[in-house]
Amino acid sequence: MSTEFGLFEGPWMLTWEEDVDAHALRRQGWSISAIARHLGHDRKTIRAYLNGERVSGYRRQSPDAFMPFLEYCRQRLSDDPHLWASTLFDEVVELGYAGGYSTFTRALRRYKARPHCEPCRASSGRDVAIIAHPPGEEIQFDWVELPDPPAEWGVGANAHLLVGALAHSGRWRAVLAEAETFPHLVQAIDAVLRRLGGTARRWRFDRMATVCHPPTGRILPTFAAVAKYYGAGVDICPPRRGNRKGVVEKANHSAAQRWWRTVPDGISIEAGQNGVDKLAMQMDSRKRKIDGASTTVAALAEAEPLLELPTRPFPAELEQTRVVSPQGLISFAGNHYSVPPGLTGAHVTVRIRLGEDDLHVVTAGRAVIAHHRRAPDGAGQTVRDAGHVIALERAVLASFSEKAPCRTKVRRPPSAAAQAEAEKLRGRPESDVANRVVIDLSHYAAVADRLRQAPTHEDQECESE
């Protein structure tokens, strides 16, 4: 049976032999009822075949459940021709699609919903060898730079996602970071390991400058201390050998295509982290076949013997720059912390040591201006120091004025200067405006007063000169 083209054999349909017999008997003058009794079928079925309404070997097509979603799929694939079918399937399921994934992908191909992309045509690949990874042996780490993040994240042109994948089972987890510096790398590694539930015996990296010396591949002393703290060995990939860590590369691809392409604007970085966590857990349901037995990624990962993690993260010192709000607050890890008043718009540095519960705010001159107990990350709490609150209230009250505010409901017509400017705008030449004769009677009054008095000897001398 083929559901795509409708081929079907069943007792309520005529075979090709029965179809031929029915037409032959009809030509011989048999009635439809007689043919139906002879062939063992219903009269309506025989009539439909004789009238050409039905064809042997084919069944009637039921209404396609995909049709109501066809235009949506075409629009989404027109907007993003490289959108994964699995991502689109998740979207239409939320919209009410009740079919299976294989039926959905067949419908996409049948209706040619995805536009053709000539530069991305499949080409012959290179040889790939399958590398065996014992359970609990290796975790592969890699940074993914995600372009055009939401402006609310404040991370610049790219968001930074550290992905860690268990090489044996394929389970992966990922953590968003504000940068790829050494403290951010240590913080992200610890967060990934705690999401995985432990650490493998070895870590694999490409030639990250925060892990090793890229030209030689030798581990940096700073990162060696991190590896010893967690009790893991470190393996560095040879240059230009991306296949050597193909498990995490595939996880990177899934995160970029199934999560990042659909991240909307206007969400917080905490909401973005929740989205990638949801996808990573959803990917644990992928099917696997080991030695002929079917299983899942989640079952394989649960059976991996991972090493226990230290109680606290490696004590790296993390610094991040923040801008003080008009309320005297700075944001950090999904919470807000107070600073002294008078710093609105200033850039300050938040300094923490991983594994500790304290947070310090320092100025550019390294002067500590605030110290707080950290709230849980992403809790949305506002932590205020009592002294900061009192000082801010005093500063606000001191800025108040006892003078009455200006009256707004007054009549103030345009002044003479404003009218002169209006005359210029009306198109009159400036020379005409400047040469206008203005009669001022005060000049005449001054001349009249002088003529009333008899001229003095000094006035006469001035006139003679």
UniProtKB/TrEMBL annotation:
<dbReference type="GO" id="GO:0015074">
    <property type="term" value="P:DNA integration"/>
</dbReference>
<protein>
    <submittedName>
        <fullName>Transposase</fullName>
    </submittedName>
</protein>
<feature type="region of interest" description="Disordered">
    <location>
        <begin position="410"/>
        <end position="432"/>
    </location>
</feature>
<dbReference type="InterPro" id="IPR001584">
    <property type="entry name" value="Integrase_cat-core"/>
</dbReference>
<dbReference type="Pfam" id="PF22483">
    <property type="entry name" value="Mu-transpos_C_2"/>
</dbReference>
<feature type="compositionally biased region" description="Basic and acidic residues">
    <location>
        <begin position="421"/>
        <end position="432"/>
    </location>
</feature>
<dbReference type="InterPro" id="IPR054353">
    <property type="entry name" value="IstA-like_C"/>
</dbReference>
<feature type="domain" description="Integrase catalytic">
    <location>
        <begin position="131"/>
        <end position="313"/>
    </location>
</feature>
